[in-house]
Design brief:
- The protein is an all-alpha fold and 138 residues long.
- It has a domain of 64 residues: 434 Repressor (Amino-terminal Domain) (Orthogonal Bundle), CATH 1.10.260.
- 82% of the residues lie in helices and 0% in strands.
- It is built from six helices and no strands.
- Helix 2 crosses helix 3.
Length: 138
């Protein structure tokens, strides 16, 4: 249990909700001095008042007691999600370029096939003419 984080979380949430230490102490049935000891870490949070504190601060014991590793894990997840989004974007760009290159090469292949067919037709015509001239010479 990370007591430093827990006391900081309790104090931060209390201030965000604009609740005074006096009001917190009164709400959970503690003296002001007793409540202050919780926020400064002099009193353990394995305390019968933890549930009451959480209820007033609209949070859970897990959120207060969770270590920084939880926050770091969420940060890592967010960073990984951003990296995944970037990689997906790059993948889409690569796929688009690949499709464009494929279309260009298919066009060039069709041009080459047409050129080969033209050449074959010319060769056929020339063979026919050679055959005709050969017959005339005889």
């Amino acid at each position: 249990m990370n007591m430093v984080k827990a006391k900081e979380t309790i104090g931060r949430l209390r201030r965000e909700l604009r609740i005074s230490q006096e009001k917190m102490a009164g709400e959970i049935g503690m003296s002001l001095n007793g409540y202050r000891k919780i926020e400064v870490g002099e009193t353990s949070l394995i305390h019968p008042k933890l549930e009451s504190i959480c209820k007033i601060l609209k949070t859970t014991p897990e959120e207060i007691i969770a270590s920084d590793s939880t926050a770091k894990a969420f940060e890592k997840i967010a960073n990984l999600e951003a990296t995944i989004a970037d990689l997906l974007s790059q993948l889409r760009e690569c796929e688009a370029k690949s499709n464009l290159m494929k279309a260009e090469y298919e066009g060039k292949i069709e041009e080459q096939i047409a050129a080969i067919n033209t050449r074959n037709n010319l060769i056929g015509i020339l063979k026919d003419q050679i055959a005709q001239y050969s017959k005339q010479d005889k």
